[in-house]
């Protein structure tokens, strides 16, 4: 449990999509409708039976047992009977269809060839199918930097020894044995200091050598017969960089590290202790013993963690190089050493042994000892390693921002390095005003909290002036007047989250959160893994509960991946911990664009339509059954045959909506990719709000009324055949059911924008199957049925010309609102296109252009 992943692991939380929450809300509404229908029918039954003739007509006298039954019990029994009769309004089969849609739909992500990476020969991975639609609702994207935005492919650029720069290049991926150009020296340090620095690079690491083996993990060829492997690509780059300057690490054998120096001599160092790197210390150290008996401590780490532990007069000459390299976007590490006396080493050895054997507070004790050991060191120099940006990262971030998402970068890197990456990836624009909450802006004095409070109030006031209150409630609103970016580091976050007083800490968090939400982009640097999860949780729990998405590639990103609503793992070079703990995994950051803007958009539209359609068709199905009770004395007489009741949701109407929810593309994929603003049209769960839900409910109610009363008026002349035979109640129910099945199926056909052979097959095939089944079910005398009430009912019905004409007419009447709506939308769209194409004069042309350009200053809420 002392591994990095275990120490920073955060327990999994149950993730539920916004669609599931909407389904539950709609289900409560329909449950209330069910209860109200049963209550109304039960009440009216006893009102109707209050007339003795209705309650006990001469042809249906009650038995003594029925007369003596307790009235309340009879009322309760009748209520339950009506509940059973109307229970089909609850779309139980919808849950099965939704799960099938999610499971089958997830294969389209894995099969997407555009998300396949030739380098690693892998495509996208779906670890859970429950959150497909959530990909279309993302408002905040939290991303790691190293390995996520960058390639995590380190290239040794230069080093600095005692303030003297040494520039050369070596790629840690290609395994080449030559330098990228001649080595350039900008003045030289003393020979002994150069060798000490290079020995430190060869000894202070956890790199291992494998000869002639194919191993899992990060592999780099160090020569024709051996490979360097390590959990960190930085270490391999540094070891390879030392090799270019003449010091070669030859491996670890029997606790002895072998190094070949510039004179081709083999030096052996006994490895005594490794003080492992952790996100809090941000450094690592080794204690070795030389062949002459000296004890040496070598340490490398971030400048913020090494500078306070070395002699202050040694810092300045190296600090200049570190800051310049950071501004150039390079990853920097500082290298220090300390010589230990035998007495010091024995004391350290005993302390470490005791701490490692402690049963309680082991981690705290080890941390204190490490802190004591790594003091009073001497700074030797610093290194600069380049981590190149992945391809199309800038375009992807721009697309996500254009889609209304806010992108935050959460990284453990140095601020200057991370800032440079943010500019390169276009997270920060040239006109973005940066607000900083870092140790530099707050200083090192005792008034840190006071200074933090001043900065928070200052930034809050500035942002409130540029964002008026009337815009504060608008989500995803962008302005072109002034953009703000926030930079905050880990130590400041600790001060915000862990203030001495809970009330002050809560106030800090509130102001800090308001500042963050009003900035177009946020960079959090020098962060521990658990701080990343804290930031995600802070935004996730804000008012409105915005949908969050976290992207990372390593074990240190697992916590924030688990905390966000949707976790995306990058199949990078730091193992597969992030990919295995994520909901979805993609090879590169650029694939996020299609995953969200295309797959997420389409999945949300499909499942939202599926949910609304199920509630709609069940209301159409059961409303005529409810109305029929007013004409049968509230006797619980079913309108439809039992076979139709059973087959309606299972066979007659299930496959068309399933095919629609898997294949529909209401907007083609190229348009979704090229115009990210389309993503905002479905934001905030737009298709499952109460307004569209009420539209579908009223549509279902209108069609249910049209089915029932249309057939009812048809039956005013009950002799619908030439020979004068009268149709009965089962024919009445069958006509209603036929109109119902054709109407709800054709409604889906009207909604379909992307036709495939499968859509044609299931839509027209379902209608054909219904006709075939009705002929088959009513054409045979079934021996297992006591009553053959459907015998030849359907066959006689379709032979009546007036009945067929009435069915066609009622189908058209029922669909007329939808047809009129489609005609109106098409006419409006054509008018809009013509208006955009017809600038009648120069003046109107200028007006149109200015109106178009001003669109960017308004919210894209439609």
UniProtKB/TrEMBL annotation:
Chain coiled-coil ranges: none
Name of the molecule in the record: Phospholipid-transporting ATPase
Catalytic activity: ATP + H2O + phospholipidSide 1 = ADP + phosphate + phospholipidSide 2
GO MF entry, a single one: ATPase-coupled intramembrane lipid transporter activity
Pfam families, sorted: Cation_ATPase (PF13246), PhoLip_ATPase_C (PF16212)
Ranges annotated as spanning the membrane: 79-98, 693-715, 727-749, 761-785, 791-824
InterPro entries per record: ATPase_P-typ_cyto_dom_N, ATPase_P-typ_P_site, ATPase_P-typ_TM_dom_sf, HAD-like_sf, HAD_sf, P-type_ATPase_IV, P_typ_ATPase, P_typ_ATPase_c
Sites where the protein binds Mg(2+): 144, 146, 553, 557
UniProt cofactor(s): Mg(2+)
Binding site for ATP: 144-146, 235, 277, 300, 331, 411-413, 526, 532, 556-557
Active site per UniProt: 144
Lineage: Eukaryota, Metazoa, Chordata, Craniata, Vertebrata
Keyword annotations of the record: ATP-binding, Magnesium, Membrane, Metal-binding, Nucleotide-binding, Translocase, Transmembrane, Transmembrane helix
Subcellular location(s) per record: Membrane
Residue ranges constituting the P-type ATPase C-terminal domain according to the UniProt record: 579-827
EC assignment: 7.6.2.1
GO CC annotations, alphabetized: endoplasmic reticulum; plasma membrane; recycling endosome
């Amino acid at each position: 449990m002392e591994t990095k992943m275990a120490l920073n692991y955060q327990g999994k939380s149950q993730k539920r999509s916004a669609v599931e929450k909407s389904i539950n809300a709609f289900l409560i509404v329909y449950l209330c409708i069910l209860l109200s229908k049963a209550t109304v029918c039960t009440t009216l039954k006893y009102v109707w039976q209050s007339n003795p003739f209705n309650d006990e007509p001469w042809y249906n006298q009650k038995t003594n047992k029925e007369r003596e039954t307790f009235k309340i019990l009879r009322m309760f029994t009748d209520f339950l009977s009506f509940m059973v009769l109307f229970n089909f309004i609850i779309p139980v089969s919808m849950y099965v269809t939704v799960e099938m849609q999610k499971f089958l739909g997830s294969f389209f992500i894995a099969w997407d060839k555009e998300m396949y990476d030739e380098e690693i020969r892998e495509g996208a991975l779906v670890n859970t199918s429950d959150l497909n639609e959530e990909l279309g609702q993302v408002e905040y994207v939290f991303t790691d930097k190293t390995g996520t935005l960058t390639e995590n492919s380190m290239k040794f650029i230069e080093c600095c020894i005692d303030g003297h720069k040494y520039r050369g290049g070596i790629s840690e991926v290609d395994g080449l044995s030559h330098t990228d150009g001649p080595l350039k020296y900008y003045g030289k340090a003393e020979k002994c200091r150069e060798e000490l620095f290079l020995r430190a690079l060869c000894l202070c690491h956890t790199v291992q050598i494998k000869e002639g083996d194919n191993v899992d993990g990060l592999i780099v060829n160090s020569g024709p017969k051996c490979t360097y492997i390590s959990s960190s690509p930085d270490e391999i780059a540094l070891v390879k960089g030392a090799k270019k300057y003449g010091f070669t690490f030859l491996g670890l054998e029997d606790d002895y590290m072998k190094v070949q120096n510039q004179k081709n001599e083999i030096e052996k160092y006994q490895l005594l202790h490794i003080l492992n790197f952790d996100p809090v210390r941000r450094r690592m150290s080794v204690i070795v013993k030389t062949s002459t008996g000296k004890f040496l401590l070598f340490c490398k780490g971030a400048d913020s963690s090494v500078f306070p532990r070395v002699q202050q007069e040694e810092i300045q000459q190296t600090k200049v190089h570190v800051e310049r390299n950071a501004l150039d976007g390079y990853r920097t590490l500082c290298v220090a050493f300390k010589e230990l006396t035998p007495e010091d080493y024995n004391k350290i050895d005993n302390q470490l042994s005791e701490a490692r054997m402690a049963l309680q507070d082991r981690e705290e004790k080890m941390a204190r000892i490490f802190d004591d050991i790594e003091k009073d060191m001497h700074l030797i120099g610093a290194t600069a390693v380049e981590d190149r940006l992945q391809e199309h990262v800038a375009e992807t971030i721009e697309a996500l921002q254009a889609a209304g998402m806010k992108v935050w970068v959460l990284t453990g890197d140095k601020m200057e390095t991370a800032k440079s990456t943010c500019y390169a990836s276009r997270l920060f624009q040239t006109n973005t005003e940066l607000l900083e909450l870092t140790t530099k802006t707050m200083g090192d004095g005792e008034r840190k909290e006071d200074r933090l409070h001043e900065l928070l109030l200052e930034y809050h006031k500035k942002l409130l002036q540029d964002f008026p209150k009337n815009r504060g409630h608008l989500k995803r609103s962008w302005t072109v007047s002034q953009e703000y970016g926030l930079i905050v580091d880990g130590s400041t976050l600790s001060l915000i989250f862990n203030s001495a007083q809970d009330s002050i800490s809560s106030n800090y968090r509130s102001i800090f959160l308001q500042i963050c939400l009003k900035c177009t982009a946020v960079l959090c640097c020098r962060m521990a893994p658990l701080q990343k999860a804290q930031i995600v949780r802070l935004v996730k729990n804000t008012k409105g509960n915005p949908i969050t998405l976290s992207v990372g590639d390593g074990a240190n990103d697992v916590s924030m991946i688990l905390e966000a609503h949707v976790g995306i793992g990058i199949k990078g070079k730091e193992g597969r911990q992030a990919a295995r703990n994520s909901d979805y995994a993609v090879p590169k950051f650029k694939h996020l664009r299609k995953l969200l803007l295309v797959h997420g958009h389409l999945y949300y539209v499909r499942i939202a339509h599926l949910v609304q359609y199920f509630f709609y068709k069940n209301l159409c199905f059961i409303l005529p059954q409810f109305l029929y009770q007013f004409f049968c004395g509230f006797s619980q007489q079913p309108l439809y045959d039992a076979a139709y009741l059973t087959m309606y949701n299972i066979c007659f109407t299930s496959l068309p909506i399933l095919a629609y929810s898997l294949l529909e593309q209401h907007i083609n994929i190229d348009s979704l990719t090229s115009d990210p603003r389309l993503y905002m049209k479905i934001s905030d769960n737009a298709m499952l709000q109460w307004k569209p839900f009420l539209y579908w409910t009223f549509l279902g109610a209108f069609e249910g009324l049209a089915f029932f009363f249309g057939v009812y008026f048809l039956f005013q002349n009950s002799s619908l055949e030439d020979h004068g035979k009268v149709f009965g109640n089962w024919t009445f129910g069958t006509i209603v059911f036929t109109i119902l099945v054709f109407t709800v199926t054709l409604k889906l056909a009207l909604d379909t924008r992307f036709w495939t052979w499968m859509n044609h097959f299931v839509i027209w095939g379902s209608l054909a199957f219904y006709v075939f089944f009705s002929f088959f079910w009513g054409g045979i005398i079934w021996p297992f049925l006591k009553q053959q009430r459907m015998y030849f009912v359907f066959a006689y019905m379709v032979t009546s010309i007036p009945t067929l004409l009435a069915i066609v007419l009622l189908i058209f009447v029922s669909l007329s609102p939808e047809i009129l709506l489609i005609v109106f939308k098409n006419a409006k769209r054509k008018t809009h296109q013509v208006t955009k194409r017809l600038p009648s004069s120069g003046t109107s042309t200028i007006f149109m252009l200015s109106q178009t350009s001003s669109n960017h200053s308004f919210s894209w809420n439609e």
